[in-house]
Amino acid sequence: MSLTLDAILSSQSSLLQEAAEALPHQFTQCTYAKGHIRQSVYLCLTCAVPRGICSACSIACHTDHEQLELFPKRNFRCDCPTDALAHPCALHKTHEAANDANAYGQNFRGVFCRCAREYDPRKERETMIQCLACEDWFHESCLNLRERPPSRGPTPEPAQEAAEADADDTTSDVSDNLPPPLLRASDYDSFVCGACVRSIDVVKRYAGTPGALMVIQDSPGDNWKIIGTDEPESMALGFEAKQEPNSDSAEVGAKRARSASPSSADLSQAKKPRLSSAPSICLAPPPSLVAQSILSNYKPSETAPGLEGTREEKQILGFGDVFLTEGFRGRWCLCEPCTSQLKKYRYLLDEEETYEPPQDPDSGLSLEELGLRALQRLPRDRAIDGIRAFNEMRDDLMHHLRPFAQEGKEVTEADIRAFFDARMQAAKSGQS
Ligand SMILES: [Zn+2]
Ligand SMILES: [Zn+2]
Ligand SMILES: [Zn+2]
Ligand SMILES: [Zn+2]
Ligand SMILES: [Zn+2]
Ligand SMILES: [Zn+2]
């Protein structure tokens, strides 16, 4: 498919709206009408109100605004077409009242982690990890997984090595040129921050037991170490696991656990509960005393840095963060008290779906698709700054395409591909 770009190029800044109109169904629909869903949310720094907009609105409505991607937030409805934002929505034309059911944590003030730092993509070197429960983002160093590295100076963005960066959407990629953290992304499946662990009894109960890793320090000045690394038993199959205590590899355990994991619907109406899915006695592992002492005695303030003062009184130290290993959703005890807890936090039982804008079915690669693909090839810690990168790339692309427009030539997909290939090539050679 080729595009005649004369018209589009008449206004550079409106390229994306125009392209979106020419190529329907791709970032042309605000998600407002879908209600409260889990979706990627963007904070518009230019509009400067603590509200969030959907990915389509981030491109179509706030095109020239500076934005920060907050990544998926559950139960979130787009604020773009509402009273809360003065900037008009270009996609959802009906004027809507301000959303009252969205939760606006500190991320909506551009602030992240228990250290409450602002995110600066040009300086940040650390991987950030998203809490499964509150969906805030945490620095590895703030989880005691590494020393806080000095911030980096502004460097050109390398665009390679990104193909492998999309595997895990709850970490923002490998920290650049830093020694490995105490726990790598491959060592666990999900992370729950200490504040959330304290508020969710069932997670608190499991903290520090096999498969619910914690980072602790025996006394001030000691090295941080991991507890809970013993091979997790499948708790859903607790009786069986006890009969054959050493039979399961982690992989087998995870698979079994998965098949034994009921959906929430099953749980809510367990008519004839099987012994293994609704035991009358609690099959949660014996609590980890170390973990429980950290969780009950030591309550770090959420935002205060410099916690050294309070640390010293405690023998065993840690924030109470929990890293749940592969297959954790199938390992919870399903006795009645545990189940009623778990049902309140469905993401502990079932992996959530995150809305993605629909693919454009009848075009070739649209400009936006090409742009977003290029974006996806950027490492995660750079992709968090994706909008800015995307805007820069769009400007370069316009520059590349302007001669076609001036000569009235059609632009083909190959021309656009050539642009991206050249760009990737430049990025690679620039890096070596
Ligand atoms: Zn929207
Ligand atoms: Zn804006
Ligand atoms: Zn909008
Ligand atoms: Zn932090
Ligand atoms: Zn949390
Ligand atoms: Zn139980």
TrEMBL record:
Zn-finger region bounds: UBR-type: 28-94
One of the Pfam families matching this protein, by short name: PHD
Biased composition (Low complexity): 259-270
UniProt keyword list: Metal-binding, Zinc, Zinc-finger
Protein name: UBR-type domain-containing protein
Segments traversing the membrane: none
CDD domains: UBR-box_UBR7
GO CC field: cytoplasm
Residue span(s) of domain UBR-type: 28-94
MF GO annotations: ubiquitin protein ligase activity; zinc ion binding
Family matches, as SMART domains: PHD, ZnF_UBR1
InterPro entries: UBR7 (IPR040204), UBR7-like_UBR-box (IPR047506), Znf_FYVE_PHD (IPR011011), Znf_PHD (IPR001965), Znf_PHD-finger (IPR019787), Znf_RING/FYVE/PHD (IPR013083), Znf_UBR (IPR003126)
Disordered, as annotated region: 148-180, 242-271
